[in-house]
Design a protein that fits this description.
Layout lengths: L1 E4 L3 H11 L5 E5 L8 H4 L4 E2 L1 H4 L5 H7 L2 H6 L9 E4 L5 H10 L4 E4 H7 L9 E5 L3 E2 L2 H14 L3 E4 L9 E2 L11 E11 L8 E4 L6 E7 L2 E10 L8 H14 L7 E12 L6 E5 L2 E5 L5 H16 L11 E3 L1
Parallel strand pairs: 1-2, 1-9, 2-8, 4-11, 9-16, 15-17
Antiparallel strand pairs: 3-7, 4-6, 5-6, 10-13, 10-14, 11-12, 12-13, 15-16
Length: 322
């Protein structure tokens, strides 16, 4: 029996990898429902490793490259790519983004309009990361929960984990040394007047924005990453910045309905690269920062290979002993 603390995306991914290899797995989860896990529930759902290379370490890009195929075994994934745009005055930012990333091609105004008709005439240049994708993290979390249960995994909701577990995936709640909380804030808006098919990233001068389609005229918008341990609701300033950047992307988004806001404290190490950390008899899977859905599959695979002593030539997992 392998015991796991935490039924967020990391804990569930680890359970799936272990159970499909034949292990008996039990997960302990303090909350009553997947929707009560804020980091996983309020995520963006972008499977965009090459875009993340703009600021992330090369390890993040490498680990995230296989996430799209992994999630397609579990839930619906939209393989539409990522479109990165910038206002004319910020073309230098677009050029800088291009230099710091790979696996993209440059588009002109006609190409942009062909991909996203709603943006016709609004931007003259863009970068298109056609191999990237996105998913609905809420649907993915529910589908992954169902998938692990189908493999025989027992999830004990509203149950504190015992003092010793084999795997700890509780993020900041784990108490693991070296973690810091990074506050992520998001909003969901709805409008019948704009349609996007893929994730749009706007290199806005004040607040770089991402807009992720959720279907039926619904979009998740996010941007703010704040070094903070506060669980207070999203601030007025953050909402104004998010909505202002969305308006800059397309004025019709200014008429959208603000449906929901949310906050999550994402666990990160100093280098923002996740890792497996061994503390006594417990292996911690932690430090996923803002890359939970992107990197959980790779970390879960590393964990399972470690438990089953499998060899993987391409597995350069980072491990630390506390």
């Amino acid at each position: 029996m392998i015991t796991i603390a935490g039924a967020g995306v990391a804990g569930l991914a680890c359970a799936w990898e272990l159970a499909r290899r034949g292990a008996a797995v039990t997960i302990y989860e303090m909350t009553a429902d997947p929707s009560e896990n804020p980091c996983s529930w309020f995520a963006g759902g972008m499977l965009a490793p090459w875009c993340e290379g703009e600021t992330a370490e090369d390890e993040v890009v490498r680990l995230g490259a296989g996430s799209i195929a992994w999630w397609e075994q579990i839930t619906k994934v939209e393989r539409c790519g990522t479109l990165v745009v910038a206002p004319p005055r910020d073309r230098a930012e677009l050029a800088r983004f291009a230099r710091r990333t790979q696996a993209h091609r440059q588009l002109g105004a006609d190409d942009i309009a062909a991909l996203e008709p709603a943006l016709a005439g609004r931007f003259s240049q863009a970068l298109f990361f056609e191999d990237e994708a996105h998913l609905d993290p809420r649907r993915a979390l529910i589908d992954l929960t169902a998938a692990v249960k189908a493999l025989g995994v027992e999830i004990l909701y509203e149950t504190a984990a015992p003092e010793r577990v084999d795997v700890d995936c509780r993020g900041m709640a784990s108490g693991l040394s070296g973690l810091r909380p990074v506050r992520g804030e998001m909003a969901i808006i709805e409008t019948p007047d704009v349609q996007f098919n893929r994730t749009i990233r706007l290199l806005h001068p004040r607040i770089p924005l991402y807009v992720v389609p959720r279907g039926a005229g619904s979009f998740m918008i996010g941007a703010t990453m704040i070094e903070s341990s506060s669980w207070r609701p999203i601030t007025v300033r953050s909402v104004l910045e998010l909505l202002g950047a969305a308006f800059a992307l397309h004025p019709a988004l200014g008429e959208a309905s603000l449906v929901e806001t949310g906050v999550g404290l994402r666990p990160a190490f100093d280098d923002n690269v996740p890792r497996l950390t061994e503390c006594g008899e417990t292996t911690h899977v932690n430090g996923l920062f803002r890359h939970g859905y992107l990197l959980a599959p790779a970390l879960a695979g590393q964990l399972a290979r470690q438990f089953f002593q499998e060899q993987a030539d391409e597995d350069h997992s980072q491990r630390a002993t506390a």
